[in-house]
Amino acid sequence: MTRIAYFDTFSGMSGDMALGAMVDAGLELSKLAEGLRGLRLLGYQLTAEKVKRGPFQATRVKVLVDGAGGSGRHHSEHEHRSHGHEGHRHAHAGGHEPHRHLSDILKLIDSSALPAPVKSKAAAVFERLGRAESKIHGIPIETVHFHEVGAVDSIVDVCGVCLGLHLLGVDEVWCSPATVGTGFVRGAHGEIPLPAPATLELLRGIPVRQRETGFELTTPTGAALATVLARGFGPTPEVVVGSVGYGAGDDRPGAVPNVLRVVLGETTAAASGGQGTDRVVLLETSVDDMSPEWIGYLIDRLLDAGALDVSVAAIQMKKSRAAHEIRVLAPREREALLAEILFAETTTFGIRRQEIDRLVLDRSFETAPTPWGDVRIKVGRRAGRVLTASPEHEDVARLARSAGVPLKEVHERALAEYRRRQAAGPEQPPPGGRLC
């Protein structure tokens, strides 16, 4: 059984709406707040209340940030993040307001007491936001920063969503196609069209639908959370529904209630292809007239769009021409998108495709401490027996960069610590192999 969270974004997605949906579906606010204390972040309160949005009763979660004089201020995502954090970074460029750089936020997350999977996913969300901001505004990623109120709110939203999924025992996150709005919002430098530029940048390679609303629907933070956490975008996976929650956004006019729906459930054996197997699509093409310099960019685009793996091999084709064979392994629901990227980014005139079954190990994550921070260890089991264990590259690379040590040193230290712990006592079953 795999525990699934499916976010139905018919009215868009934001961080606070995702928190509200999970609380509405059964996540205990007290446990969420207790876990977030591991951030050691002061100056905010987390509240939840039942509200009506159209015909729905939903849960509205607010992050009340302490302002001048100790008063709590709540900034909904559709207000303070309506244009890719531009207001946070540029409205106070004169230095009159406090702000946090992206590197400060990543250090805060890394040094927190949050579970390792939560830290890794939350850091990945902020790094993705930072890359989008850097590209949109033409600035180095090191200079991206957030106004203090927005930074606290963003940190709590992002870490709260990752922690909430962890506490709910979610193995996989899925989303409907992203829903974006129309119109304009006012930013620090004038009117900005919707969808916000940062939101569109974050949604590259993702199916998008647009509603004529006059409001922002999917925010940059919502887009970053979805694209980092979700395994795929499409219809609801085949699940046995457990609970359903509705997270409320701002109360605003319109025919579509401003709520985000989450469905929590478990896959059936039939849906997962049977124990120890899954079904994927293999896309292949051979090209002999494409510059090798394009290949690195192509691989990045395919992986960002949800490919499970991409491999490129040097081959020889007819007339003894040197060529490259490109192979893409993908979830079935990503086939059309990945094929479109192959046609757009290569010189191919055709793509071979086939559906194949994979034999897969049961996977879970354990944590290995190192002098530089915790590293997730991906453990592969078959019939309950550990067959392989590998440190997660994202964690290893993040710690190596922040500590200024060789990547292989962090990798070897984490693996050695995992093996030492395994040898120290009888192996304990994993706690459900839960992913953030």
Describe this structure in words.
This protein has 436 residues and is of the alpha+beta class. The chain is 33% helix and 32% strand. The strands form seven sheets. A five-stranded mixed β-sheet has the order 12-7-1-14-13. The two termini are 16 Å apart. Mean pLDDT is 84; it is low at 68-73, 75-97, 269-275 and 429-436.
In short:
By secondary structure, the chain is α+β, with helices and mostly antiparallel strands.
What is the structural class? alpha+beta
The residue ranges in which pLDDT falls below 50 over 5 or more consecutive positions are 68-73, 75-97, 269-275, 429-436
Number of domains: 3
Biggest β-sheet: count, sense, barrel? 5 strands, mixed
Strand order of the largest sheet: 12-7-1-14-13
Extended strand count: 21
Name the beta content range.
Answer: 25-35%
Distance between the termini: 16 Å
Mean pLDDT: 84
Helical residue percent band: 25-40%
Helix-strand blueprint:
Layout: E1 3-8, H1 15-24, H2 29-36, E2 44-53, E3 56-66, E4 72-73, H3 77-80, H4 86-90, E5 99-101, H5 102-110, H6 116-137, E6 145-147, H7 148-167, E7 172-175, E8 178-180, E9 184-187, E10 190-193, H8 197-202, E11 208-210, H9 220-229, E12 230-233, E13 239-248, E14 259-267, E15 277-287, H10 295-304, E16 309-316, E17 322-330, H11 335-345, E18 352-359, E19 362-370, E20 373-382, E21 385-391, H12 393-403, H13 407-424
